[in-house]
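Today's session is about reading a structure prediction critically. Students often jump straight to the picture, but the first step is always the sequence itself: look for stretches that repeat, for charged clusters, for runs of hydrophobic residues. Only then move on to the predicted structure, which in these notes is written as discrete structure tokens rather than atom positions. Here is the chain we will use throughout the hour.
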Amino acid sequence: MNRIRLGGRNLPWTTAAALGAVAIALFAVVAFVLHPEHRDRVAAAADIGLTPTEQQVLQAAKTEALNLATFKRASFDADYALGLAGATGNLRSDLSDASRKADLLKTMNSGKFDLSADVVNSAVEESAGGRYSVLIYRRDYKVPTGGQPTLTARDRLAVTMVREGGKWLASDLTSVGLI
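Below is the predicted structure for this chain, in token form.
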């Protein structure tokens, strides 16, 4: 009876068999796990009906809508700068007003609360000439020190997005009323 020993004369064949098994396992992962996941993401994007550019615009608008309504007193300057960084044009001019920023921080400090928000829904409304109009439904909250968030507003916003310097920026933000 011949026995197969690991090592010695069988070492090259054992190594080749082990590497072959690893290669087959990697192929199986790619073929049956990663590739279908990619295909599902592409299909989901197609089901939404948005082009890749519209998806980028929508994500940038949602992020900016949150950044313009989420401020913590402990990191207020950085939070405000984040909102300012996603803005351009008239919106950036409005946000650059130092008295506006100071008044907001003063109100938050005197009331001992932070501000937060979440985006409930969003949609690309229209596009023309490289400008996109995005509708955002956002909820705004006051978060008192050590307390529970309190809903303060439900905003329905129209955000105009433009591409500048390789980034999508909000150039205008208009309240379009409640649903």
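Discussion point for the tutorial: The CA atoms of residues 2 and 88 lie 79 Å apart.
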